[in-house]
Amino acid sequence: MISRLLAANDRAAHHNREHFDELGILAINLMSSPGAGKTALLEATIERLGSELRLAVIEGDLETENDAARIRAKGVPAVQITTGSACHLDAAMVHDALHELELGDIDVLFIENVGNLVCPASFDLGQQLNVVLLSTTEGDDKPAKYPVMFRNSDLVVLTKTDLLPFLDDFRPDRATAALKASGYGGPVLTTSARNSAGMDEWLSWLRQSLAERRHSRPSRRNNPL
After folding, report:
1. pLDDT tens digits along 182-212
2. pTM, whole model, 2 decimals?
């Protein structure tokens, strides 16, 4: 049963990836535990990058359109997926959401996955990159507890670093050591959406990732859906 489910998901993910490749869209799967600051990071990103790049967001939550409403308030198109009891997005859900977006008008698509450090790691959505957030409020041992999620990511972003002076159970050096022990070998950025710390590095990473995407596969602006 599980193998058939994953096989069907992989076929749908391949289909999504064909759409992204056709249009040169950089699709990023944004993952974290609940409350780590995914939507806040996106809001801060839109404020600084929204006039430079064409952004769009697919939001995943069990219920409500709260996060999608926050993104739309920033002037960026957002599609909400409510999963009910499902603890992750799958490729078919994402494909359905793509029909509600003008894909030819998108440079970077953020897929904000359901808050969970287990299930989303197993489901390919067709994205090019995986970004995992680790909040200072959740403890620096999360990479040791949930190694698969972090090991398979392309970037780890430490969030809410403005709270570090008030926390005694999170040390960035311990988090970095736990990431290394999990098998993660990529970059680690430290950010705060509240005071903009580290945002320049995050935006530079996004710009560079999009440039590499365009260099490897030039975009063709039409809509294949």
Report:
1. 999 999 999 999 999 999 999 999 999 999 9
2. 0.93
Alpha carbon distance 89, 86 (integer Å):
8
What is d(CA 106, CA 191) in angstroms, rounded to the nearest whole number? 25
Summarize pLDDT for 22-57 with one digit per residue, the tens.
999 999 999 999 999 999 999 999 999 999 999 999
Query: Would you call 163 exposed, middle or buried from its count of C-beta atoms within 10 A (0-12, 13-18, 19+)?
Result: middle
Separation of alpha carbons 225 and 220, rounded Å: 14
The Cβ of residue 173 has, within 10 Å, a number of other Cβ atoms equal to 8
Residues 61, 150 contacting (CB under 8 angstroms) = no
- Per DSSP, helices labelled H in 101-146 are 142-145
41 vs 157: CA distance, rounded Å: 10
